[in-house]
Design brief:
single chain; 278 residues; alpha/beta; Rossmann fold; Helicase, Ruva Protein, domain 3; two-stranded antiparallel sheet; 12 helices; 19% strand; elongated
């Protein structure tokens, strides 16, 4: 295939900073990402942010089907060029965050997300799959390196936060490879990493995922406050009630939320759900 940079130049395409457009061009890296994702001939792939189509093309060679979302319609001529001959790849032009995910899943069936995510939508996109997806088997995404560290952080560390605990309910996040900024066109100001999250149904048993999410949001609402104080503020509880609920969940009342494991959050969520609080 013609060099991607030549295709972009020939189409008159202009990079748009607002869309976080940093494209991958290295064929070996693209093939490695496809391998990291475990994409095979029976895999349906949903890609968010097709960009110039280099990853889309690499995915189409291995997958059963690829549906790629792209918000920038000015990339149509570029994608028509890069995806020529890729009969199993389709591009939907629009904002994925506004798409009807339930209807999309009905069409796709079981699928995996593989994407070089634009930095500005990384967390909203990942959280949408964590909270709404029913048929997604997992995510393999290129993200900013500092975000990758948050996704994979351990309790009690500075990088551990609400998104870490949200991921843990669904699966385990692993950094597959680090990707220096020099691999992108144009070059961003930060390095990146490929993170793989395989969804495992029932990985952390919890009575209500909604209650789990509410407890996690509560725990990280004020990182410098104790979990007891955050419970009081979030759920408007008297102090003794908050202490009693923590005790019932086997959690000390003076701890801070960032020290709790996902299993701790699940126990507390079950207690609050059973008491009709969350």
């Amino acid at each position: 295939m013609e060099d991607l940079r030549d295709i972009l130049a020939g189409s008159g395409f202009a990079f748009k900073k607002k869309f976080g457009q940093n494209f991958l061009t290295d064929a070996n890296l693209l093939d490695a990402i496809v391998r990291d994702a475990g994409v095979g001939e029976d895999t349906t792939v949903l890609e968010i942010g097709a960009g110039a189509g280099a990853l889309t093309r690499a995915l189409s060679k291995a997958a059963k089907r690829v549906l790629a979302y792209e918000i920038d319609a000015s990339l149509k001529p570029v994608l028509a060029h890069t995806l020529a001959g890729c009969e199993n790849a389709e591009v939907a032009f629009g904002d994925f965050l506004r798409a009807d995910l339930a209807a999309l899943e009905e069409e796709l069936g079981s699928y995996r997300v593989v994407a070089n995510l634009p930095y500005y939508v990384t967390t909203p996109v990942v959280m949408r799959f964590l909270e709404e997806a029913k048929r997604c088997t997992g995510l393999t995404v290129m993200v900013q390196q500092e975000v990758a560290l948050r996704f994979t952080a351990q309790p009690g560390t500075a990088d551990y936060g609400a998104v870490t605990a949200a991921i843990a309910l669904k699966g385990e996040a692993r950094i597959m490879r680090r990707v220096p900024r020099t691999m992108f066109t144009p070059r961003p100001n930060v390095d990146s990493a490929v993170v793989c999250i395989d969804f495992v149904p029932g990985r952390i048993p919890v009575q209500s995922e909604g209650a789990y999410r509410a407890v996690v949001r509560c725990a990280f609402a004020g990182r410098r406050k104790t979990l007891e104080n955050n419970l009081m503020n979030t759920f408007r509880l008297p102090r003794e009630r908050a202490k009693a609920l923590l005790s019932e969940a086997g959690i000390a009342d003076m701890v801070r939320g960032e020290t709790l494991s996902p299993a701790d959050f699940a126990r507390l969520a079950d207690v609050l759900h059973a008491r009709g609080i969350a």
